Amino acid sequence: MSQVQRMSRLMAKTLRDDPADAETLSHKLLVRAGYVRRTSAGLWSWLPLGKKVLDNIARVVREEMDAIGAQEVLLPALLPKEPYEASGRWDEYGDLLFRLKDRKGGDYLLGPTHEEIFTLVVKDQCTSYKDLPVMLYQIQTKYRDEARPRSGVLRGREFQMKDSYSFDTTDEGLAESYALHRAAYQKIFARLGLDYRIVSAISGAMGGSASEEFLAPAAAGEDTFVDCPNGDYAANTEAVTFTTPPVDGSAHGAMEELDTPDTPTIETLAKFLGVPASATLKNLLVKVDGEITAVGVPGDREVDLGKLGEHLAPAVVELVTAEDFEGRPELVRGYVGPQGLKIRYIADPRVAPGTAWVTGANKADTHARDVVCGRDFEVDDYFDVVVVEEGDPCPVCGTGLKLGRAIEIGHIFQLGRKYADTFQLDVLGQQGKPVRVTMGSYGIGVSRAVAALAEQTADEQGLCWPREIAPADVHVVAAGKALQTELAVDVAEQLAAAGLRVLVDERPGVSPGVKFTDAELIGVPKILVAGRRAGDGVVELKDRRTGEREELTVAEAVARLT
Ligand code: ATP
Ligand code: MG
Ligand code: MG
Ligand code: MG
């Protein structure tokens, strides 16, 4: 029999007002409903209701990972420097990494993700092709010193991730492990009740080739993706790389590592961008005939940038340098959207962090001044030329692409042999010769999923969980005096005896109005009220989502809910 959780004993102080620093719906509601409390920037304490939801999500993830034959392990979060030095990520991660020293002066880090350590575990455990394939996972606390830990648990500096890793001897094997994970993720997110899209992604600091993200569309999301209405193409705008420029002459491409002469002409610029010289470039800050000019920002609506012209006319184009910005802070700007500071920028790798710049629009009241690269947002040491807009033609069918905001809830990678090469992870093959192992890595933001789900399901009244994820199956409210309280507790116990997870609001001296408001805010899917007709043994069953109510006898209500 399940336990009845009494609200009078529950540590969940609800708040009427939004926390002052909260910008996103999930942040506001999870705090107001008493699920989480902020301990410090990006560090969150999970209170009883929040912990239940977090555990429910972890349980679904665990069940589906087990179902594809992945084995659960638990590795340390506190890690030695050496493996990350060997892979290069000790440096690559930069400020994102939490670093610390032990009493002997040895260098350690708090794990942001665990490719290195899993590779070493498998190197120790698996020696023959017969030991593979193997898939391992953990649900563990991860640490990243995020530049902007906003949005509550959506972007924590400490957060829960399910990370898994596959080890195969052949490329086909890796493709199979990847496919298994992809299918498991589809099941997981469907069970969680999340609306999501699978999109192409860049592999970022992970390295490797094939990579897809699972994005949950939501206004609070920090990712922008393009979606073909015919389902022919979907990608994170970070990953958009069209091979041929669309017919309208607009340019598309995500650039990495630009290596250009100091004073490129339009022709050189176009050449390394891989577009015709007549293309319209977006989101590029350059000097044209000595004047600094910004060209478009995609994805972020309502911007009205100075342009180089509909088509780049032959002119001398220079890359701007730090000196150009001295005494001209108005040139360093970010775009302030509904989610706060949103920046697209171009950083010259030759310029030190802190002196790089952003491009932004020139519209009044939509911009922040004096933002500093590295302090206010992450520094990427490559030119960020994101050039795709709503309505741009789908590279497959030509239909106009839709642009949307979303939360990255999962990410899957075919890493290939990058880490196996670093750590010489070989197994003895069928022919008696060593075979280099090929790997995949797969993440789900378990704590982020709590917030993503809240974002997608909440309404004006508060949170509104799907049953499998909710902290209880039913929330019983005693709306009245002793008679109602007695009935409420009695029904709650009957429901618990039938195996349901029950929350009962029997708080003395709390008005029915306050209890109803709290029930709506907490968001358990069914609300059962012992009120006016308690004397006749009649209760009211309310559906949290639809608001539909029904008067039922206690026996009917119990039968209905079980
Ligand atoms: P983002 O683009 O949002 O910074 P990421 O691409 O850096 O995420 P991955 O390295 O792919 O994240 O990690 C796997 C998953 O972990 C992500 O898909 C996301 O769901 C989750 N995650 C990453 N960073 C955070 C964070 N700071 N707080 C909560 N969850 C996170
Ligand atoms: Mg990140
Ligand atoms: Mg990402
Ligand atoms: Mg990612």
TrEMBL record:
It is found in: Cytoplasm. Its EC number is 6.1.1.15. It catalyses: tRNA(Pro) + L-proline + ATP = L-prolyl-tRNA(Pro) + AMP + diphosphate. GO terms for cellular component: cytosol. Its main location: cytoplasm. It is an enzyme of class 6 (ligase). The keyword Ligase applies. Residues 52-466 form the Aminoacyl-transfer RNA synthetases class-II family profile domain. Keywords: Aminoacyl-tRNA synthetase, ATP-binding, Cytoplasm, Ligase, Nucleotide-binding, Protein biosynthesis. InterPro entries: aa-tRNA-synt_IIb, aa-tRNA-synth_II, aa-tRNA-synth_II/BPL/LPL, Anticodon-bd, Anticodon-bd_dom_sf, Pro-tRNA-ligase_IIa, Pro-tRNA-synth_IIa_bac-type, Pro-tRNA-Synthase_IIa_type1. GO terms for biological process: prolyl-tRNA aminoacylation. The keyword ATP-binding applies. GO terms for molecular function: aminoacyl-tRNA deacylase activity; ATP binding; proline-tRNA ligase activity. Catalyzes the attachment of proline to tRNA(Pro) in a two-step reaction: proline is first activated by ATP to form Pro-AMP and then transferred to the acceptor end of tRNA(Pro). As ProRS can inadvertently accommodate and process non-cognate amino acids such as alanine and cysteine, to avoid such errors it has two additional distinct editing activities against alanine. One activity is designated as 'pretransfer' editing and involves the tRNA(Pro)-independent hydrolysis of activated Ala-AMP. HAMAP family: Pro_tRNA_synth_type1. Belongs to the class-II aminoacyl-tRNA synthetase family. ProS type 1 subfamily. Homodimer. Consists of three domains: the N-terminal catalytic domain, the editing domain and the C-terminal anticodon-binding domain. This is Proline--tRNA ligase. It comes from Streptomyces niveus (Streptomyces spheroides).
